[in-house]
Description:
Layout: H1 2-15, H2 23-37, H3 46-58, H4 62-69, H5 76-85, H6 89-97, H7 102-118, H8 122-135, H9 142-157, H10 199-221, H11 225-233, H12 238-254, H13 258-265, H14 273-292, H15 296-311, H16 317-333, H17 337-351, H18 375-388, H19 392-405, H20 410-419, H21 423-432, H22 436-454
Amino acid sequence: MCRGLFLFLFLRCSILAQIDVYPEIRALLREAETAFSELRPVDRARWTRDHIATLYSKAGYFADADRVFGAEESGWPRHLKAFAVYGRAADAEKLANAMTDPEVKAQSLMSLADVAWKMGQPGEAKRLYQAALAVLPKYANVGHRANNQATITRNISYLGEEPPYRLSAVPTPRERSLPGASPVAPFPITTDGFRSRDSKTVSSQSKADNDLLERLFERMRAQDREGLNALLESAQTPFQKTLGFACIEHILIQLHQPEAAESFANQIPESTPDTRLAKAEAMRAVGAEWLRLKNLDRARTAFSAATAHVQSAPDLVWGQTMVLTGMAAVQARYGMSTESARSFELAVEYGRRLPLFPTPPKGGSYPKPSGVHYRDEGYRAMLIAAIEVNHLAFAQKVSALWSQDATDAATSIVNSWLQAGMVEPATLFARQIKDPQQRTDAFIALAKDRAFLDGVPNL
C-alpha cells in the first residue's frame, strides 16, 4: 500500500509540467480560487473546489489543478483525461495503474479509453478498456462491478463508429452566438395572457381561439368588413375578442398601416384586468410601428396609453413587469432615452412586488409551482432587455438589485451579461461581489465562458 501510494504521488508530480496556452482562463480561475479561500473551511463545498480544479486541468494547468484538488485519488480520473489529451497518455496510464482503489483505477482506465477513441485511436481505446476489465474482479461492490462491466462491453462495441466529437490539444476557438432582432414585428399581445391557468383550460381555450382566428382570416381575405365585425362580436370571452382585434392589428402592422392598427387596438375591451393588460401590449406594438416610421409624437401617445393600461391591471404584477420591460427596450432601441428610462424604472417598481423565490430546506430543493413567477425572473428579463439595447446604466442597477435580493444570483447575472457578449461588465460585476461564494461562482462562470470561446478541449 505504501509503495503504491509513493508511486502514485511520484508520477503525479512528474506529470505536472505547466502548459500556458490559456492565460486569460488561468487568471479568472485564480480569482475564483482566491474567493473560494475566503470561505470558512466548513463552507467550502467540494463540488466548487472540484469545478475549479477540473477547469484548470482542461486548460492544461495541472499544477494549479493539483494545488486546488489536493491528494485524494477519487477525483483524478477527470484530470487524467486532460493529461492524455495534452500528449502524456503513457504517463497518465502509469498514474492510473498506480491508484490503490480498484474502482478508481478501473474508472481512470475507462476515461483514458474514451479519450483515445475521441482522438482517433480505437485500437488503443480497446486495449485500455480490456485493462479496465481486468481490474473489475477486485471490486468489493458487486453491483458496481456489473455496471462497469456492462458499460465497458457497450463502449467497446462502439469503437468502430465515429465519435460524437474529436479531442485535440490544439485549441478550436468558437464564435459566440448572439441574439438577433427579427425583421418581422412580434405578435402584439401574449396570446395566453399573464394569468395562471391549468393545462385543461389552456387546451380547450386554445382550440376555441384557433377556430375563431381561422374564420377571422377568411373574412379578412374576403374583405368582408361586416362579417368580420359580426365574428368579433360572437367571441365567447372578452379575451377571445381581444385576441381577434390583436390579429387584425398584427396584419396591419405588417402592412405598415399604424393608423388602422391603432384603431383596432383601441377597440380592445377594458372589462377585465387581463384585457386591459393585453390592450397595453397592443398599444406598445402600435407605438413601436410609429417609431419605425419616425413619428415620435404618435409613438409617445401610444406609449402613454399603454402605460396607463398597465397601471390599471394591479393583480397581474408579472404581466405589468414584462409589458413595461418590453416597452422600455423598444423606446431605447429608437433613441427615446428619457421615456425608456422612465419605463425601465416603472418595470423595476412592479418587478420588486413579485415574491422572492422561497429558500429551499438544507440539502433539499423547492419545486417551482406552475404559473407562479418570482422576482429573480423579473430581474433576469429586465437585465437581458437592458443589455440588448445597450442601456448599461440600468443593466448595472438591475444587477445590483438582483444580487442584493437573492443570495445565489451571481452566476445568473454574469451569464446574462455574457450571453450578450458583454465580458467587461460581467467581469466588473464579479469583482464587486462581496459574498465569497457568489464571487467564486461568478468567476467560475466567466472561466467556463472563456474556455468555450478559446476552444479548450471538451472533456
